[in-house]
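Entry 12.
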Amino acid sequence: MKRIHITKRDLFYTDVKLFVDQAESDGVLDDVATMVGCTRSNLHVVASDKGLVVGRISFVEDGDFIDCTKMGVGGKAIPPYIDKIEDVRSDAEFVLLVEKEAAYMRMAEDRFYHKYPCIIITAKGQPDVATRMFLSRITSELKIPVLGLVDSDPYGLKILSVYMSGSKNMSYDSASLTTPDIKWLGLRPSDLNKYDLPDQCRLDMTENDIKTGKELMQEEFIQKNPKWMKELQIMVKTKKKAEIQALSSFGFQYVTEVYLPRKIAQGDWI
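Predicted 3D structure (tokens):
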């Protein structure tokens, strides 16, 4: 038997007339995984890769040695077949989990991981399965903390929640997909005043933003962390949000030369 992996799209095209829509074949796949009691990756069906990693980590991927400090400015694409990764090694002190690719690229180009031994990961927005599995795997093996850097808006928090507790439609696979203890490094609502973010960089929250923020206050991962709740209350009360890139108003390298060093030196995460 060939030990190959296929994508969900490949599976859909095995019988387009039967499935009609990929959502149908995806649903069947999830049902089979649930019935068998295994993960989707155990069935050798994977999602297309979209995550990136750079920094102080090396591993063997399907027989090839990968050193993520020597993968160029963009770093290494996180492979969808995590089961082919072995011999994970690192001298990193923490993982920096970044929501936006633009912020990730700034840190990668500035070689932030040389000055502050860390592993930098991004899923370019909403986290994909491969990135969630990779993060869960390396934090489990390396026993190092994860610091989250997301936009100061409700959706940044929702992204952290997916990494921490998973998505409802893949609850059967939560053990290999979740990283429960992620610290919120920034960009936090209290940072807007603490770092004197210009008014033009503070965006008005929409009614939907405010509604989402209030709904998040009812979520367990917020309620069990009073400091997260306080930050969310500030956001909803001020009705202001801000993107990580807003820090660039102080200079393109402000995030790597001032913001992050100050945060790390002060242990300013919650």
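Annotation: The first strand starts at residue 6 and ends at 7. The CA atoms of residues 41 and 83 lie 8 Å apart.
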